[in-house]
């Protein structure tokens, strides 16, 4: 852009925060306070599952059935020992034992089948919710204004879409069944233990409060580490996107800075490794203690049962002890599962906050509720562009700095070729941003076809405007696919007509794959002139009433410039054309030339009129002619 004040090196959106050592607790608390605070976060997370109520209800039913069935095996185990293996008569009762064992197998098979069905349901719901969340975030980002993307590193945006949404995948796919299943299983096991022997139940559960407190502390630590881990992933993604793109690799190779980039990436990778290890180890001591405790309970139960039998305080049988320890062992896994889910939920809160932070961003430029299409607004002046006392300053510009455009007024009639020239930073390119409402005027109004652009639907407005910029962007796809980006249903004949009009058809058919030629990332398999002419053909396929040329030939050599300029001249015929020009030789034939300096239009007229006026334009033209002569 021509002007707009300094742009921070790190975007104001999604800016990576400083990393603080674990030893500085006070600084760490201050750092945590800077994390995004999202109101009603849990309610919003649960709202993600609203479209899947039926599947969730079925899942709940399956979980309840499975939990109920899980209570039966311990009770059957007790009967198998007391009535089948060691009945009062002393000899095993095989018919009873066979019936009990068969019933246990039926319960196990049924529970396993229900578990498979339950897993399929939760995996389907979780992944659909995650996919919908990713698409929702991508859709929201598409609606953001241009300034959001000029202030945010592409890698940071990619990290929100990939790392953050992917980071909550396990929570979305496993949380429902895990929370419900483990909760019901813990309750069922607890009930079964009480039914078997309440004294042994008290012994087994006496240390549970200590584990809950320890779990909460571990969860807080892991949540902080998770937030730092995602910030580090964002930084790594940004470095990768910047340095491994074609432009980035060309820059690093041309300046021999590969080692610098390797060092930068390796340093962030080391930080990521450290954080990943910390995240995985943060709860391991806690879970190790829990495992030791729960694994020791059977031995303690045996000891306590022995004391109770000796004291005559209970009539506990061998079957009761075996059944009780079986239930206690089955209690351990759902209990650990619940604790791990609690930790995962705490850890994922930071990720959900980052996702909703982006979803809560409000686009600065939005259609009004009563916005009309260009056709509804009337097309009597279609192609007319007018600035009425427009003043504009970029959002990040300092308050004391001068505006990029200052009280600018002009009118371009339908079919007229208008050029904007002036020194670098004068505000020329900003004019091309305001016409399609990529930015919005601070004061004054921009009119298209007689209507204020703020009263028009932006998509309808942009449909009538074609833009060819200096930095041509082509996708890593075929020439035909790049052309059809402007008109997806274009026929081959329309592609060829647009390519001929842009003076690129003969070049395309000289390639072995013709229109099926893959252009490479950003079109790097083509020359600058070829890329630019394909971009012109793409705009011609759109067939807009207004054509905006933003220094479309300034990066080309003289021969390519002449070829592309000829294509541009052909493309401009019959259209309103706004040309932002650095080389004045390309606009000498313009119907009107506006000279911009310091954000104001200081002169306007034809080439001959401005030369005769001997003002700013004449001096610029003389400097360029002399520069060309010296260069020649």
UniProtKB/TrEMBL annotation:
Q: Which UniProt key words apply to this protein?
A: ATP-binding, Membrane, Nucleotide-binding, Transmembrane, Transmembrane helix
Tell me, what is one Gene Ontology molecular-function annotation carried by this entry?
A: ATP binding
Does this entry carry the keyword Transport?
Answer: no
Principal localization? Answer: membrane
Entries under PROSITE patterns matching the protein: ABC_TM1F (PS50929), ABC_TRANSPORTER_1 (PS00211), ABC_TRANSPORTER_2 (PS50893)
Query: What Gene3D superfamilies does the record tag this protein with?
Result: ABC transporter type 1, transmembrane domain (1.20.1560.10), P-loop containing nucleotide triphosphate hydrolases (3.40.50.300)
* InterPro entries in UniProt: AAA+_ATPase (IPR003593), ABC1_TM_dom (IPR011527), ABC1_TM_sf (IPR036640), ABC_transporter-like_ATP-bd (IPR003439), ABC_transporter-like_CS (IPR017871), P-loop_NTPase (IPR027417), Type_1_exporter (IPR039421)
TM region(s), chain numbering: 55-76, 96-120, 187-214, 285-310
Record carries keyword S-adenosyl-L-methionine: no
Q: Which residues form the ABC transporter domain?
A: 385-623
Bilayer topology annotation: Multi-pass membrane protein
Protein name in the entry: ABC transporter ATP-binding protein
